[in-house]
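Issue 218. Parser rejects a valid record. Input:
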Amino acid sequence: MNIFAVLGNPVKHSKSPIIHQLFAKQTGILHNYKKICIPLNNFYKSFFHFFKNGGIGANITVPFKKKAYKLCDFVTKRAKYSGVVNTIKIINSKKILGDNTDGIGLLKDLQNLKFINSKSNILLIGAGGAAQGIIYPLINFGCNITIINRTYQNTKKIVKFFKNIKNINYLKLEDLFIFYNKFRYNLIINATSSSIKGNIPNIPSNIIGPDVFCYDLFYNSNNTPFLKWCIINGAKKVSDGIGMLIEQAAHSFYLWHGIMPNTKLIIKKYKKYD
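Output the parser choked on:
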């Protein structure tokens, strides 16, 4: 039987199997989807083991998106522009096709929430694969993005990857604390794994306010630690990444089966499974 899965570490919290089960029911497509926790030091072996044993498609989650990109024989245009993949499909002659549906999934969710417009000034927290994978669609939409991260060199690497693009820059974390009154952001996105660990990114509370939208790529049955912190510091409109997860999953499903599920119905239904 053909098998699909989400590959990552951790994946225990993942709602992807439930979402894909709902997609399968909605479309009438047999879709065996599971979650597989891969040891941090054993990605390559586990990756190929999955595809040698019935796997024909997979979602790749933290922290393996950059590694997965390097294993692809072909990548889609949006994967090429992001430099990371979150969706894999085995195509003719056992070749590996890599795609990135994270960015388009996030943009769609932000539009659904009315958190974004083409002139939004965005502060992106994080410089790993999750952050890198969402930048291109936001820039293409017209937004300005400033990246901060605990490790300054990593922010410089991401901006260098998106070379010759004017509306992306980086900032030292200490400068954000010192000169916070000079910066005004419409949207703050947490793309770090801090919420998975129950932590909060180290950013000044002064940049949060009632007119600032706050979004966490991570999701939880309740507000994430980051979103709780944002609310305490005055944020009125916050959201976790469950909508993004559903939207990006729909694009993965489309890549695998050629049918786009109705995401609005799934977003309404998923809460029953919390």
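Fixed in the parser; the record now loads. The longest strand covers residues 3-8.
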